[in-house]
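step 3/5: co-fold with NDP
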Amino acid sequence: MATRIDGKAFAASLREKVAEGVATFVAKAGRKPGLAVVLVGEDPASQVYVRNKHKMTVAAGMESFEHRLPADTSQEALLALVDQLNADPAVDGILVQLPLPKGLDENAVIQAIDPDKDVDGFTTASAGRLATGLPGFVACTPLGCLMLLKDQLGDLSGKNAVVIGRSNIVGKPMAQLLLQESCTVTIAHSRTVDLPAVVRGADIVVAAVGRPEMVKGDWIKPGATVIDVGINRVPAAEEGKTKLVGDVDFAGAEATAGAITPVPGGVGPMTIACLLYNTLEAANRREGLA
Ligand SMILES: NC(=O)C1=CN([C@@H]2O[C@H](COP(=O)(O)OP(=O)(O)OC[C@H]3O[C@@H](n4cnc5c(N)ncnc54)[C@H](OP(=O)(O)O)[C@@H]3O)[C@@H](O)[C@H]2O)C=CC1
Ligand SMILES: Nc1nc(=O)c2c([nH]1)NC[C@@H]1CN(c3ccc(C(=O)N[C@@H](CCC(=O)O)C(=O)O)cc3)C=[N+]21
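step 4/5: write tokens
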């Protein structure tokens, strides 16, 4: 039976460490680190995430600047806000909550963020820095996955890692991080032939697909470490209710894996904790304290 990796507890302890770092920053810089979050439109899931981010930013001792804009905001107005935040000395980190409403050019908005304030790690500058090993910001979800893996396994060098999914915000940066740790990395995707066989070779499996419980227990090599990034809302047993499940069939994989993250309570809480971690880092760098 696999060890359950407690992402919720790990994230809480990371947020405490960040809060200590914030106190040190305030003593030296004479101001709080600031995180600006931009939410366009009314997407209910995004509203919940943004509210949680605000609460945890304040709890860590940082300044939270929330910008809520109507769904019919123009591209020009949104870009003007990003420029204003880029120029604002009180803002160390900028996050534009995705997805944006239809009609807005997500890529153009993300690329407008100053890479030194890109605490989401979504700009091409951040992706390029990660790929070439230069200091920058790593996307929060893959960074959180890596922290959980290192905590569980220690040195990752030489391990066979399979990342399922090749998105710019999860799969690709995850693969770069594992490569940096000297894993032998395979990136699987919708065109991969015989995915079960590919996964059976993995000491480390990171599932970031967006398909509920797609990865089955009998794909998992005995003792492997399984990181489930998926957040899928599906109908629950009780009529009219919903529940969250990952991209991995948890019950099946738990029997074979060495360790596995649950959903909820696994990778999800690490994402926000890493956002705070990156924001503190951005503040320290901007003040020459890093
Ligand atoms: N915990 C957290 O904080 C976060 C969780 N998530 C969750 O992680 C999941 C992935 O997110 P994201 O990367 O943005 O998703 P995307 O939809 O951008 O990417 C999904 C990837 O999965 C691949 N894929 C789709 N179907 C299959 C299949 N049948 N077999 C193999 N690969 C397949 C796609 O392949 P192809 O490229 O060929 O189309 C694609 O590369 C989602 O559930 C999302 O909700 C995302 C961000 C943060
Ligand atoms: N610019 C931008 N940056 C993001 O990082 C970003 C984004 N846009 N858009 C949406 C996705 C998704 N995401 C999650 C954050 C926290 C949980 C999380 O805390 N999940 C809890 C459960 C939450 C619940 O119960 O709904 C858990 O897994 O335990 C999940 C998903 C960040 N994203």
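step 5/5: annotate
Residues 26 and 84 are 23 Å apart (CA to CA).
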